[in-house]
Amino acid sequence: MTSPAGLVAFCVPALALASPLAAQEASDPPSPFASSQEQTEPEPELDVPELGDAIDFEADQLTYDNEADTVTARGNVILRSADNSVRADQVVWDRGSGSIMATGNIRFVDDGGNQLYTDSLELNDQFETGAMSDLLLALRAGGRLAARSGARGEDGTVILTDAAYTACAVTTEDGCAKNPSWRITADRVTYDPEDSRVRFRGAMLELFGARILPLPGMTVRTDGSAVSGFLAPNVRISEVNGLELSGEYYYRLADNKDVTLGAYVFSEVAPMITGQWRQLTDSGAFQVTGFATVSSRVADFTGEPTTESDPRGYLFANGTFQFSPEWSLTGSVRVASDRTFLRRYDLSRDDRLRSTVNLERIDERSYLSLAGWATQTLRITADQGQIPVAIPAFDYRQILKDPILGGEVQLQANTLNLIREDGQDTQRAFAGARWDMRRLTGMGQIVTFTGLLRGDLYHTNDSLSTLTEIYRGTDGFTARGVATAAVDVEWPFVGEAFGGTQVLTPRVQLVASPDIRNLAVPNEDARAIDLEDSNLFALNRFPGYDRVEDGVRVTWGVDWSLTKPDWRIKTNIGQSYRFDEEGTIFPDGTGLSERFSDFVGRTEIRWRDYIQFTHRYRIDKDNLAVRRNEIDATVGSQRTYVEIGYLRLDRDIKTVEDLADREEFRGAARVAFGPHWSVFGSGVFNLTGADEDPTFEPDGFEPIRTRLGVAYNDDCIEFGLTWRRDFITAGDAARGNTFQLFFALRNLGFR
Fold first, then answer.
1. Quick one: signal sequence residues (predicted)?
2. Which of 185, 329, 508, 542 shows a CA-CA span of 20 to 30 A to 194?
């Protein structure tokens, strides 16, 4: 079979291009509203009949042959009918037959925005296309369809012969024609303008000129909407499941809903099925995804692990609904049959699954939330009975319209109910008010005054089931009051430095609170305490509401930034001092347990889009030891880059299991070679030693996961091979190697 027109690409130095695909990419057509040559004669004033009520036209020259009953328009001819238009060098209208023949540099635009380019086109007086040759159809949704010839069928469809389709560019940046990375050839193509579909018969996928895959029943939408059909399969080889082949069929039920059904076939275990339902409603959208199979799993992780074969699966659903400009509902459900299913089948690396629901009302001055959540732990040694379920969690906030004493007042009411199957249950309710007044002095200082009053009521039972004593509180009802007053002063200085603009901002804050009954109530939401630059100036440096920092303290710090062409540098450092001599409820090692806190800071450096560097740190006030050292850096372009992440927590906290020391390194890199190829790799390594965590078996080095691969990527195709190795065995999710081929084609639904 000869190659279809327009897809054999070559570079020509002359003005003419044989390929209509290349011609479209190589140069823009002249404006249809400007003449391409000087008009040698004035436009004749002829009494010519109009081309029908539905068709308007304009041209440089117009002649009328009375004997032949034809109208001829020449030079930048434009015909319009509703949303359709034709531009050509010459148009001849035979009034007797109603035939309109257009020739020379034709561009026909239909009401869907698709553009047809050809040298010869026949239309009827209803503006319907007829015969054409050497044509190019540029679809509005992307992609180009070229053919040797085409004709209009009796049913209104356009039938193309010896055709080819591609979504790739067919010219280089210099305007030379080039072969597309992929194309689909077909003996016959049917284009139906009514339902916006292009159907292929005898379709064959070609990659880099090689015919590799037949595509029976292939269909493309010209309006960009989805079409039912098979998606490209995935191929993977893993240590535990063997060779894996997966494929899916996409079925479009209606314009607002679709379903995808798929199957995974493994050489070592039973197959797995999957399905996804997506739907758009009048008020929102939702989707439901599920996986199901039968395979062996570790049923008991205590003592000697036992293995049994059970039905296994995973359900994920989420949705958002907007009932009015103020009211909305969001929710998600994530449930797995067991703790190792997602990891074994490489669906997710999460160590917990959270299901939530949240009804919200938001307007300019108020916020209301009625929520609930439940968490399924996937950690091997965690006790599910100790994981709480929150039903309900209520929060309401209202900003008063009129200021009080020159400041803004926000009222808040909050309730929370936590239920555990095998642990402590807690109910909490509080109501409070916060007053903020911000002023700018004549010397440029920004002064903020804050006052906070809150009343809390707690009820808890079975507190002794909580292992950490400072988290328990007391059984029964407990009430407490919270009061805080603060003044915060910032004094920015702006000036020129190093060829740019610098801003130096000293900051001082004074916060005072009376003694608060912290240990009398349980701690459910304020456990992950650590002094950082982000909470140094917070009114309460505990996260959440269950713990409130009391006493009198002063905090100081300084921010500095430099902005110049291509560069931006920001850094800050600060410390706090507590006036009270008595001990605090902060655990030793958090940087806040003594009168002087540790030093905390952050530095950010950015040069263009090539270098991004962030360093967060906490330095011991006594011996200047680094207690927190966190680095995130990216160097390079989008195609060639290196990413580095490092975290070390050296806090030596012995009293709280949630704050154990850790050390971790993360790295990733991609190196491009040639115009389209690249190699890439990444790794996660646990560097925690026994001196940092005695329960950690590997002493100082344990790879968690590594990955290497090679990829090809151009404007319309991406494929590659990836090797990944997991070093951790979790039940039946065994450590080992995984190899995966990935493949994606633009505009064809290939992943």
1. 1-18
2. 185
**pLDDT beyond 80 at 264:** yes
What are the b/e assignments for 558-569, b being 16+ CB within 10 Å?
ebbbbeeeeeeb
Chain centroid offset of residue 2 CA? 43
- DSSP characters for 700-717? S-EEEEEEEEEEEE-SSE
CA 127-129-130 angle, 5° bins: 130
Please name the residues in contact with 402: beta carbons below 8 A apart, sequence gap of 6 or more. none
How many Å apart are CA 117 and CA 115, to the nearest integer? 7
Residue 274 Cα distances to 264, 314, 517, angstroms? 8, 9, 52
Q: Would you say residue 52 has pLDDT above 80?
A: no
Quote the tokens at residue 498.
């190093």
Report phi then psi at 710, rounded to 5.
-135, 140
Report the C-alpha gap between 62 and 92 in whole angstroms: 10
Q: pLDDT band at 270, cuts 50/70/90?
A: very high
Contact 472, 448 (CB under 8 A): no
Contacts of 655 (CB under 8 A, 6+ apart): 470, 587, 588
333 close to 316: Cβ distance less than 8 angstroms: yes
- The answer on pLDDT for 126 being more than 80 is no
Instruction: Tell me which H or E stretch contains 643.
Output: strand 641-649
As a 3-state breakdown, the chain gives helix, strand, coil percent values, each rounded to 5, of 5, 55, 40
First to last CA, the chain: 30
C-alpha 742/C-alpha 259 separation (Å) is 23
Q: Would you place residue 3 in the very low, low, confident or very high pLDDT band (cuts 50, 70, 90)?
A: very low
d(CA 557, CA 445): 15
Residues whose CB is less than 8 angstroms from the CB of residue 446 and which lie 6 or more positions away in sequence, other chains included: 438, 439, 440, 489, 490, 491, 492
Taking residue 633's Cβ as centre, other Cβ atoms within 10 Å add up to: 15
Beta bridge partners of 120: 103, 133
Name which of 650, 399, 627, 607 is nearest 500 in CA terms: 607
- Is the sign of the CA dihedral 12, 18, 24, 27 positive or negative? positive
Q: Which residue has the tokens 């291509």?
A: 566
Of residues 742 and 55, the one with the higher pLDDT is 742
Q: Which of 34, 16, 39, 35 is nearest to 26 (CA)?
A: 16
Calculate ∠ Cα 276-280-284, nearest 5°.
Answer: 115
Residue 25 has pLDDT above 60, yes or no: no
Residue (of 347, 382, 343) closest to 733 by Cα position? 343
**Strand 389-399 relative to strand 611-619, pairing:** unpaired
Please name which of 25, 10, 12, 16 lies closest in space to residue 136, comparing C-alpha atoms. Answer: 25
pLDDT in tens, 620-665: 999 999 999 999 999 999 899 999 999 999 888 777 766 778 899 9
Give the tens place of pLDDT for each residue, 664-716.
999 999 999 988 999 999 999 998 876 666 555 556 688 888 999 999 998 88
Q: Which of 746, 749, 586, 750 is nearest to 143 (CA)?
A: 746
Q: How far is it, in rounded angstroms, from Cα 566 to Cα 331?
A: 42
CA atoms within 13 A on the CB side of 416: 21
Please report, to the nearest 10 degrees, the dihedral formed by the alpha carbons of residues 178, 182, 188, 189 taken in order. -90
Which of 311-320, 473-482, 560-569, 739-748 is predicted with the least confidence, judged by mean pLDDT?
A: 739-748
Dist CA 23 CA 743 (whole Å): 30
